[in-house]
Amino acid sequence: MPSNSCVVIGCDTKYTDKTVLRHRFPKEKTIFDAWVKRSGNNKLLNKPIDMVYKSFVMCDKHFEQTCKSPGFKKLNANSLPTLNLPGRYIILILYNIYYVYTITMFIVCCNLQILFFFICSIVICVMSA
């Protein structure tokens, strides 16, 4: 019997939450690999498909409604998790860090340029005197 806790890194769906559906990992290798990669859970990387299928689940919070036929709880074949995944946050954080770094460097460069012009003007004034 699989664990009721979602394997996606950062997901808050725990075994006690009975309101969120859980889905077993697919057995088809290509889809399985995509689920593992998108989960962000490195513990699943080297585990056999059958073992992951029997032991782990991914919750409904990671799938769009279009992944299910109307009126059904089961996922359609080839459904991929696209919502609330860990990698998207990491990319956003890295982008924000780069953005802040770029702005900081721009400010530092502008200040250095201003300082350079200030020093040059002092040197010119001293040499003129």
Describe the structure.
The protein is mostly helical. It has two domains: 22-84, no CATH class; 89-129. It contains three helices and two strands; from the N terminus they run E-H-H-E-H. The protein has a two-stranded antiparallel sheet. The longest helix has 43 residues, at 86-128. The radius of gyration is 26 Å and the shape is elongated.
Give a short synopsis of this structure.
The chain has 129 residues and is mainly alpha-helical.
Major sheet summary line: 2 strands, antiparallel
Strand content: under 5%
State the helical fraction: 40-55%
Find the structural class using helix and strand composition: mainly alpha
Total tally of structural domains: 2
- Helix tally? 3
End-to-end CA span: 89 Å
DSSP summary, beta strand count = 2
Give the strand order, joined by hyphens, for the main sheet: 1-2
> What is the typical, i.e. mean, pLDDT?
81
* Radius of gyration over C-alpha positions, nearest whole angstrom: 26 Å
User: Helix-strand pattern, N to C?
Assistant: EHHEH
Q: Using the alpha-carbon principal axes, give the shape.
A: elongated
